[in-house]
Amino acid sequence: MTTTNDIEQALRGVVDPELGGDVVELGMVKGIELADGIATIKVALTIAGCPMRTQIEGDVKRKVGALPDVDSVAVEMGEMTQEERSEVMSKARFKAREDAEPTMVDPVTRVVAVSSGKGGVGKSSVSVNLALALADQGFSVGLLDADIWGFSIPRMLGVGADRLEANEDGKIVPLEAQGLKLVSTGLLVDDEDKALMWRGLMLSKALEQFLKDVAWGQVDYLVVDMPPGTGDIQMALSRLLPQAEMVVVTTPQKAAQKVAARVADMARRSFMPVIGVIENMAGFTSPSGEHFKLFGEGGGRELANELGVPLIASIPLDPYMVEGGDDGAPVVRTHPTSPAAQAMTEAGKRIVELVPPAEDETCTARIDRLVEGLKAIG
Ligand SMILES: Nc1ncnc2c1ncn2[C@@H]1O[C@H](COP(=O)(O)OP(=O)(O)OP(=O)(O)O)[C@@H](O)[C@H]1O
Ligand SMILES: [Mg+2]
């Protein structure tokens, strides 16, 4: 006689290929009934439009349908609540951490990946100034330019001509740039055109090298400037650094809906939690005090609400930001009292509140680390 327990056992054979766990352990099974030979299975997907929907549905039908006493299988698909979604993500992250390969980045380093749903919104400018704002609070900060062939960080920090070198262990030593530990493809090749040669190299391989072969040392925060797009690099980063979390940069335009969906999907596929949203290129105030909303308004707040995360800061349009980017003179350093620099400094403080450095953390995190440490020594 087949029982609901048997059905649950069979469902352990249905794996969500993206989350890397079976639907039972991930808590996606919300109900199992068997009456008159009809099995009814309730499955909650992470998001309703999950691309894996058909596959999961088919697998459930096959596995359960193969049991004795089951004549037909009805699958009822639902969507997880925000809370359930966070829980499933942390389970998946835990698994990813268990399976992660060792990197040179300290497991307690806070990794902040600066991402966006589209290009040109100011990810690199925000990364540089955010890293400096964190360093200004006394933290040791690494800055990884993960835009492997579209790198712009070396120019923004004015270190175009410098090159990375290896230490006696054969590990790459990050370049000290304006108090940050910097690694970028731009510090390996002679000019931006030559970077095109790196196209042949798999992007995720280059990223892997930056994480495994770089002697980052003790850094409290590692800020990662992500390339535009929502693909391979995000996946590789979360595979290599399961502690990575995302800050999403967006413009104030109210076309946030589509961008939000893309970002949420990226977060889900890479298991990266979203810390919050930074709105960039918000209004411009002329020297005479006139205010212009060049790129609309409210988009940052809207995206933050949509994702259920805080709006970390709203950075105004600022000519010094452009100038600084071109001349290696970041606005946080050169015009610290300008509205853009102050907004970036505030963003740095907010990040520290939202993802505090390891020492200030809760007991749970300490216990987690203790357990991991004990495991490491056997
Ligand atoms: N707040 C701002 N005020 C004025 N200009 C800005 C601001 N933020 C960024 N910019 C300018 O916008 C341009 C694009 O910025 P940036 O390169 O940082 O974007 P990105 O998202 O990293 O782009 P990509 O997707 O190509 O990597 C740059 O010229 C930069 O100087
Ligand atoms: Mg960029």
Tell me what the structure shows:
By secondary structure, this protein is an alpha/beta fold. It has two domains: 4-81, GMP Synthetase, Chain A, domain 3, CATH 3.30.300.130; 100-371, Rossmann fold. Helix content is 38%, strand content 21%. The protein has 13 helices and 17 strands. It has helices at 4-11, 53-65, 82-99, 123-136, 153-156, 203-212, 232-240, 256-270, 299-307, 319-327, 331-334, 339-354, 363-376; strands at 15-16, 21-22, 29-35, 38-45, 72-79, 110-115, 141-145, 165-166, 172-173, 175-177, 180-183, 221-225, 245-250, 274-282, 284-285, 291-292, 311-316. The mean pLDDT is 84. Magnesium ion binds next to helix 4.
